[in-house]
Amino acid sequence: MNKIRILYITNRFAPAGAETFILNRLQVLDRSRFEPYVAALRAGGKLKPEFEKLGVPTIEMGDERQLDPRSIPNLYAFLKRERIQIVEAHVLWAILISRMVARAAGVPIIITNEQNMHSGAAAHRADVRFSVDLTTRLSTACVYITHAAMKSFLEEPPKILQGNPIRRRIPNGIDVQKFESIAARIDRNEKRASLGIREGEFVIGNVGRLVPQKGQDYLIEAFAKVKKKVPNARLVIVGWGDFEPTLRSLAEKFNVANDVIFTGVRLDVAELLPTFDVFAFSSIHEAQGIAILEAMAAGVPIVSTNVDGIPDMIKHEETGLAVPSCDPAALADGVVRVFNEPDLAKKMVVAARALLQTEFTVEAAARAYERLYIELLEEAGIPIPPAAPAEKASDGQHAQI
Fold it and tell me: Do both 214 and 320 map to the same domain?
């Protein structure tokens, strides 16, 4: 019996949350039943070679422009030529275009994954959101990564636009074993020294794209407050983005520029995380936040804003410390509390790892998606190959989200 042909599609092969999630899932996908392909609407991105290492056909539908018009006919031709049976789309533009093109190409099953909230600082313009809402009915199934994300897409758009797709909450998951094994073997002092961190310094870490949504401006202001109580503190911000010049200026304004390290794009986040004494997550809006899961797996205590989908992961004083968003004083107090209460920090690390193993592994996510595939294939009357034991491939990558 022929395998089920699935196309996973995103905007580009950037080392961000959605793309990393797809990459990690492909490593545990049941290849005895499913034949995967991966596509990006735009060219470029550091993860393309990582997909190719898995032996998965990897296609760029257009050039590096935000939307190359050629990507639409190229995608249509590919879907027809390869007789794709399931399209799974991640990230807004890929979702919007895949719904229309896959439906036109006669793809029987279209799954769209909402990685963001419907509204808020991370949301797109109202006209773009309306286009997404208008095409929701073209999806066979809509997947949401947190309860908050699902609620926002169910309650905020007009009901008349929503159609009747199947709705599921499937959290993004990570390769927990990878992060735990790296944390166990990494030479922490050597890695810290490579960043210019001196022995005995208290390191606050943050991982994410440098964009206003991630709230690193509030983090820098919070760090200035932390320095008054913890003079040997350093702040490491891992990621890239257009907000970096603004953040550097803020560090100068608050007289902490010499103690803030901007690493830029890094593909060794799994090695950097264990160098942190606390992970400070400052997002203003966040549907989930894979970086939080990675910090949990690395055994780093977490102080995080309690916005949107984050409460699914951060239970205050259990798996981390939850603070209000846009509140530098509260964020600073949480970081100082971790510094002053090591027993609490250890307790939260243990609880966070237990939650991670229960709900947020990539294996759990992969199996949940495969159950959804089977459900939709049965409804469509498409023959399904019998299951075979899945084998886990090589380590996955990290995310900067």
Answer: yes
